[in-house]
Amino acid sequence: MSAEGAADEEVRLARAYLSRVAEPPALALGALIDLLGPVEAARRVRRGDVPVSVQVQTAARCAEDRAEEDLRRVAEAGGRLVVPEDEEWPAWPFTALAVAGRQRLRCGGEPLALWVRGAAACAELAERAVAVVGSRAASGYGQHVAAEFGHGLAAAGLVVVSGAAHGVDGAAHRGALAAGGRTLAVLACGVDVAYPAGHQALLARIPERGLVVSEYPPGTSPARHRFLTRNRLIAALALGTVVVEAGRRSGAKNTAASTTALGRVLMAVPGPITSATSVGCGELLRSGEAVAVSSVEEVVESVGRIGDDLVEPPPRSAREFGSPDGEAMRVHDALSPALGRSPQAISVESGVPLDRVRALLPEFELSGHAARTETGWVRVGTTGRR
Amino acid sequence: MSAEGAADEEVRLARAYLSRVAEPPALALGALIDLLGPVEAARRVRRGDVPVSVQVQTAARCAEDRAEEDLRRVAEAGGRLVVPEDEEWPAWPFTALAVAGRQRLRCGGEPLALWVRGAAACAELAERAVAVVGSRAASGYGQHVAAEFGHGLAAAGLVVVSGAAHGVDGAAHRGALAAGGRTLAVLACGVDVAYPAGHQALLARIPERGLVVSEYPPGTSPARHRFLTRNRLIAALALGTVVVEAGRRSGAKNTAASTTALGRVLMAVPGPITSATSVGCGELLRSGEAVAVSSVEEVVESVGRIGDDLVEPPPRSAREFGSPDGEAMRVHDALSPALGRSPQAISVESGVPLDRVRALLPEFELSGHAARTETGWVRVGTTGRR
Asked: Is the pLDDT of residue A376 over 60?
């Protein structure tokens, strides 16, 4: 480590090479690096002097030694390579990936390095981040909710993590930017690749205050398996994940599964059961895997530490009566708003003994719920049926 | 008991009197009846020779001895009084009310008798019934879902229980009738009272195959506290309750609370978080009190006995690949649909060792996922991004 909390150039070059040589998540290679350090591990991989488990992961590309070129390319795109030896490495959020890797879970495996573009430090962004994900083919409802949540979470000082895809992802990022907040996009391709093409401007704006992040070296094109592998990083970099909309087979359900497996808070936004894009959220809610969230406040409460950030229950109306078999409600219901009634008639109608009726009526008068008229007692104020 | 499983006329007269004399739920009076039987209990109430707890419940109306008149009135309306001494009394469903009463829960207290109109036997209807409740001010979405659920549950042979109110209740009853099924309306007024006025025709149709039920004697007008008291009967007469739509302060939330307190299955239909009429459902889902249901099948599964009526999981596509880091998916993603590629190029692109690529490509050819062309291997069939 250098004095500024940044890694040696030798380490960075070694990790740049290793990041290209194996397709993530490369658990066996990661274990070798932990054992020998990145520089020695890179030397052995180049020579092919590695255990069979690592051989399988590296044989196809071990001659692809493009570390210097890749570092130059990311620098040209205004980015850098962040390695575990750097201070800004999100070591704590990634602990869950290492644990999941040891448990041989699908979502396991720390990245070997992160290619990033942006002004912010990665570890700092991940400290108080919430992922907002969902269908690319989002409905108007899904896009509206994603934008509202992105805006509200950013306004509350949280970092909005998502995958920069069309639909929910894009709306969440844009909502955060509109609030002047910070957002983090995790890509399934190189950080210099404009994908999706329509989000080129969005991907240019995010690094101004936030970060665009990928474990894939510059120039890597997106592929289906890379989206699935990427999704575990979205889950790991956030305290919790909100699924805004998801179809039955949406990739967001994969992010949801990783969220749960990594021990993060999984949330889902209820939507109409008649909408195909809410089917996935319905399933997550029905199974109990996700907690329902209807507002930014509920998201903050769900990811917040117990006792912190608790949503206030809606205030009870001062005019509300107590229990359904409460005498007060029965006597009040027995009053007519128009027709004056005697305490005796009210007692029979309500079934409440006459002496209690005689005690309650003046109380109602004082609280503004009843009035004494020439023809008897009348009801004042509104009352609900049912 | 008479030979036909029906109670003596003396018992029926006593319960008719007791049903008018105390406002339900009258737990102390119920306990006195359990102790002395209805005939002796009625005699004591008339004389005022009862414990203070019963005195409080009966003093205001003990002179209202209209049993014969009430039985005549209900008969004129085509109905009858069902008492616990009758075979058709839903004794088993009401056990939970007795238990809740002993625990002094709000929703406790068996009815002393039930005034009913309709062809069906009460106990038989309650055997396989599901309650569908919700806002009177339902949205188009809520009315649509209520009607669909009412129809689907009735078509599945279940009885639809509700409260005959405007909005969700009415739509659920109508849906059941449209399916040629049976439905049970529990009223907060006399069974001869047309309330709400706009549902007069609906309340006339329900008894043709189902039942209109109330614990209030003929002519009783609806009152707010009676809706709350009535709601516990809706919950008790069903295996579970579905809340279709509920505002923050909807009466349906009271039925929901009774459902949980009585140990029945509580279900809620997810709805847009932007809709005021779905706020109550969102709260029930978020708190974990209710399980989310998106279809009639899920309702049937939720109330069904464990192992029975289980919803089949949606079938997985035959074209789906396995795990995200599976080599097969990586090799398939490395193929281009247009451009022929060599096994070597595919190995580098996918990071999968060349010998595995050479083994997988012919497998893809057989399964129809890839084809050999003059320029190399190409992808066949669709693939998804993300």
From this structure: yes
Both tokens of A270, joined, read 């209820």
Residue % of chain B over a pLDDT of 90: 73
Provide CB contacts within 8 A for B198, sequence distance 6+: B166
Average pLDDT value over all residues in chain A? 90
Instruction: Give pLDDT, residue A338.
Output: 82
Asked if A251 and B386 come within 8 Å (Cβ–Cβ), the reply is yes
Query: Quick check: A193 pLDDT over 80?
Result: yes
Please say if the pLDDT value at position A208 is more than 50: yes
Amino acid at B244: V
Pick the CATH number of B327-379 from 3.40.50.300, 1.10.10.60, 1.10.10.10, 3.40.640.10: 1.10.10.10
Q: Assign domain A76-303 to its CATH architecture.
A: 3-Layer(aba) Sandwich (3.40)
Round to whole Å and give the CA distance between A169 and A150: 9
For range B164-178, the mean pLDDT:
98
**CATH number of B67-303, picked from 3.90.320.10, 3.40.1280.10, 3.40.50.450, 3.40.50.880:** 3.40.50.450
> Binning pLDDT at 50, 70 and 90, where does residue A372 land?
confident
Predicted local confidence at residue A257, as pLDDT: 94
Q: Do B56 and A353 touch (CB under 8 A)?
A: yes
- Radius of gyration for the alpha carbons in chain B, expressed in angstroms and rounded: 30
Would you state the pLDDT for residue B26? 93
Show me where the domains of chain A are located.
Answer: 76-303, 327-379
A127: number of Cβ within 10 Å: 13
Contacts of B285 in chain A (CB under 8 A): 270, 285, 292
Neighbours of A21 (CB within 10 A): 27
- Quote the pLDDT of residue B319: 40
Q: Does B228 sit within 8 Å of A324, measured CB to CB? A: yes
Contact B281, B290 (CB under 8 A): yes
* Two tokens, residue B1: 């008991």
Tell me how far apart the alpha carbons of residues A291 and A309 are, in angstroms, rounded to a whole number.
Answer: 16
